[in-house]
Amino acid sequence: MTSAYEENLPCRVSIEILNEKCKMLRIFRNLEIHRFNVVDVRRLPRGITRHLVRVPVEHLAKFSKRVDARMRNSVRVGEEIVAWFETDGCDVCNTIVSKGAFLITAWNTEKDKLVYTFIAPSMGAAQNIILTLETLNFELKILGIERYRRRIQVLTKKQEMALWLALEAGFFDYPKKISISDLSRKLKISPSTLSEIMRRGIRRLLEYYFENL
Predict the structure, then answer these.
(1) Per-domain residue ranges for the chain?
(2) Residue 15: its pLDDT value, please?
(3) SS (H, E, C) the chain
(4) In whole angstroms, what is the distance from residue 42 CA to residue 51 CA?
(5) CA 37, CA 55: separation in Å to the nearest integer?
(6) CATH for 157-211, among 1.10.357, 2.60.40, 1.10.10, 1.10.3470?
(7) What is the mean pLDDT of residues 117-124?
(8) Confidence at residue 194, expressed as pLDDT on a 0 to 100 scale
């Protein structure tokens, strides 16, 4: 039996969904791009959904053909292009974002199926997202739900939680998938407070590492 504290811990969820209404899937299929990876989704106030997508660099020339999606701020990272696309979204991404979760990645597997991995703020929120998608008649399969658990007693609870979420959300990736401001909004604290928590946590980890070599 889980405690109230455990129920309110964030969790990492992976689900496979038959999503025939995915706007990004349709856009890339029309461009004959058969593999893509969505690494962030944000719902804008005016009803627009913004997707951060990674695709192989050889497909860059194809993007100019699109008229039903706006590409923003593309950048080349190694052999991939990373770009924001704006659409009116779909029920899957909008449900995930509206429940306070944030997407880690979404990638297509076969036909109209996609695997979504996201961080939910609690087990209740994760179950709510799954129930909502089932109510919307999506065919889905739960691939895994992993609740956050403390590892070693080196960091404070706040430090470990902040660094875990930052790592999962792609704060330490290049380019960053999430900014300190966006991450602080997820945690409902100020950017300066989050920055200090993470700085102290990283210092503790470094001290622990070098003292135990």
Answers:
(1) 9-147, 157-211
(2) 95
(3) CCCHHHHCCCEEEEEEEECCCCHHHHHHHHCCCCCCEEEEEEECCCCCEEEEEEEEHHHHHHHHHCCCCEEEEEEEECCEEEEEEEECCCHHHHHHHHCCCEEEEEEECCCCEEEEEEEECCHHHHHHHHHHHHHCCCEEEEEEEEECCCCCCCCCHHHHHHHHHHHHHCCCCCCCCCCHHHHHHHHCCCHHHHHHHHHHHHHHHHHHHHHCC
(4) 7
(5) 7
(6) 1.10.10
(7) 90
(8) 93
Global pTM?
Answer: 0.76
What whole-number distance in Å separates Cα of residue 25 and Cα of residue 101? 21
| Sign of the Cα pseudo-torsion (186, 192, 193, 196, in order) | positive
**21-56 b/e (C-beta count within 10 Å ≥ 16 → b):** ebbbbbbbeebebeebebbbbbeeeeeebbbbbbbe
Q: How many residues can be counted in the chain?
A: 213
Q: Can you give the pLDDT at residue 116?
A: 93
Half-sphere exposure of 127 (CA within 13 A, CB side): 6
Give the tokens for residue 104: 């880690």
| Per-residue model confidence as pLDDT tens digits over 153-172 | 788 888 988 898 888 888 88
Sign for the pseudo-dihedral over CA of 63, 70, 166, 161: negative
How does pLDDT run across 2-57, given as a tens digit for each residue?
Answer: 555 556 788 999 999 998 888 888 888 887 887 888 888 887 777 788 888 888 88
